[in-house]
Design brief:
9 helices
Length: 246
């Protein structure tokens, strides 16, 4: 049954995404206006989340949303799944996500992500990637947008220790914004490939960290806060989850 749900969701993903070819053509002819493209991107993401809910049985809940300030902030989240990459387009409207260039290769979706606009970096070009991340992060904040980064750089397993890659501390120092750490357990349900496991993803917004700390203090505080929150789910694991559901 899980495999059948996964195949059905894959077909739904493809069909839903194909519907956005028409607005893509309209946006191209009208000069690719940013705000309408961001609205269309959020609509696409909502449709994907709806498909996950109704086809796969994968829902989500938010905890601690009061920690998100009304003004722009730097959101730092762990990365376990494709789920959070698209869900944050809905959870934090107009957020500028620091994304790897490979995402732009996804048909239709990549076009919308490029022009939303996201902060797209080439991880193979370290110095230029950092410069792009900082410059475009500043531009996003000046436009009233929060910035989201997955500082692990790639997806990690639910049991993997949290390790930030170089760069997030520079972004923190240059933007001068409060930081909201976010812990997610999406890897329990969508660890790779296409989503197959029903359940509830928890998005836990943690207490904000003030700007102005040293790089070491920032890294220690942010990594530690997310890591401690992830301990809520680590003892369960995929085997334990299946046994509990049975």
């Amino acid at each position: 049954m899980a495999h059948a749900r996964s195949l059905l969701f894959a077909a739904y993903w493809a069909a839903w995404t194909t519907l956005f070819l028409a607005p893509l053509a309209v946006f191209l002819l009208s000069g690719s206006p940013e705000r309408p493209i961001r609205r269309a991107t959020r609509l696409w993401a909502r449709g994907i989340l709806a498909g996950l809910r109704h086809i796969v049985g994968l829902r989500y809940v938010e905890e601690g949303r009061q920690h998100l300030p009304a003004k722009p902030c730097l959101i730092v989240a762990n990365h376990q799944s494709t789920w959070e990459t698209l869900a944050f387009l809905v959870l934090v409207p107009d957020v500028a996500i620091v994304a790897k260039r490979e995402l732009l290769a996804i048909p239709v979706v990549g076009w919308f992500l490029r022009r939303s606009p996201m902060i797209v970096i080439d991880r193979g070009n370290g110095t230029q990637a950092l410069r792009t991340m900082i410059d475009e992060g500043r531009a996003a904040v000046a436009a009233g947008r929060s910035v989201l980064i997955f500082p692990e750089g790639t997806r990690g397993g639910i049991d993997a220790p949290l390790r930030f890659k170089r760069g997030v501390e520079l972004l923190y120092g240059r933007l001068g914004l409060p930081v909201v750490p976010v812990a997610l357990n999406s890897g329990l349900f969508w660890p790779g490939g296409m989503a197959t496991r029903a359940g509830t993803v928890v998005v836990s917004y943690l207490t904000a960290i003030a700007p102005g700390l040293t790089a070491a203090e920032f890294l220690r505080g942010t990594e530690g806060a997310i890591d401690r929150e992830l301990d809520r789910w680590r003892p369960i694991g995929l085997d334990g989850l299946g046994a509990k559901a049975a």
